[in-house]
Amino acid sequence: MIPAETLNTGQKMPVLGLGTWLLSGQKCTQAVSQALELGYTHIDTAQAYGNHREIACALENADRKKIFITSKIWMTDFKADVVGPACNQILKDLGTDYLDLLLMHWPNKKVPMHKTLGAMNELAKQGKTRAAGVSNFTIAHLREALDSKAAKISVNQVEFHPLLYQRELLEFCKGKGISVTAYCPLGRQGDLRHRTINAIAEKNERTAAQVCLRWLVQKGLVVIPKASSEPHLKENMQIFDWELSEEDIEAIDSINRNKRVCNPPFAEFNRGSE
Ligand SMILES: NC(=O)c1ccc[n+]([C@@H]2O[C@H](COP(=O)([O-])OP(=O)(O)OC[C@H]3O[C@@H](n4cnc5c(N)ncnc54)[C@H](OP(=O)(O)O)[C@@H]3O)[C@@H](O)[C@H]2O)c1
User: 227 C-alpha to center of ligand 1: Å?
Assistant: First the structure.
């Protein structure tokens, strides 16, 4: 059984989800089906991943109420009158009548944030989404979002892994009752090669991936590693029956290099001042 994080809406969000970026076609349906069979109950997707229909195929035989689905609206659909139709399309493609969580995928300076959040709040009122959130938001973005009071922000999904330990952002979110989801929790495999991670893995008789995920979970984050093979899917689930010691946690805390592996060209422009 995967433990859950309680969101500020009262909803339970499983602390391990399946990331689906780059999963497409038959491979996507297969990986999501396999994950559900193994006991995953949380799927992370986005309009931009182009895989909603493939995920819908995998969800056909699942009990919808037991699955937590997150999707994200792309930056070009942030205008107030576009958010609703974009969400309707997501629901149609996923074959569901609600999302557990809908996120703004990236900040976009070109559209006033409160307009997008206001439209997302309407979707929550209509029951099309259970919670609203953001992704790739800095503290400055979050302050603007919170000050606007346009919607309750339940989650901020950001890149977070041992080589990108965003301590200040995490503390800010926790202080505001915003849950944090770590994307690229393995640093797209980059962190798995780090000497400290491997030494701790060996000492605990675990793998480097499990050490990264366990460090994040012990810090109170939700993790969404992408995995496309059964061994990886299984390995990433085996992080709940053991713990890293305080000493191990401190050793991992010290390897931060502020190393982003997801840094598309538009990110810097929209990130603004931290
Ligand atoms: N909000 C955003 O802007 C944003 C941006 C990026 C990502 N995301 C979300 O976060 C998810 C995760 O990020 P990501 O996919 O970029 O990176 P990631 O999860 O850090 O790394 C995925 C890579 O790690 C491999 N892997 C998985 N489990 C492993 C294990 N136990 N041992 C060794 N390798 C393992 C996968 O290989 P196999 O496929 O071969 O299993 C894949 O190559 C995405 O899929 C997406 O849902 C969100």
Answer: 6
For the segment(s) 12-266, the CATH number from 3.30.1390.10, 3.20.20.70, 3.20.20.100, 3.30.710.10 is: 3.20.20.100
CA–CA distance, 189 with 225 (Å, rounded to integer): 10
What radius of gyration do the chain's Cα atoms show? 18
Output the CA–CA distances (angstroms, integers) from residue 116 to 74, 159, 225, 250, in the order listed: 11, 22, 28, 39
The residue ranges of every structural domain in the chain are: 12-266
Ligand 1 binding pocket includes 107 (Cβ within 6 Å)? no
Q: What is the C-alpha to C-alpha distance for residues 10 and 77, in angstroms, rounded to an integer? A: 28
pTM score, whole prediction:
0.98
Residues in the chain where the model's pLDDT stays below 70: 272-274
Closest CA to 172 of 188, 156, 159, 187: 156
Q: Hey, whose CA ends up nearest to atom 40 of ligand 1? A: 228
pLDDT at 272: 62
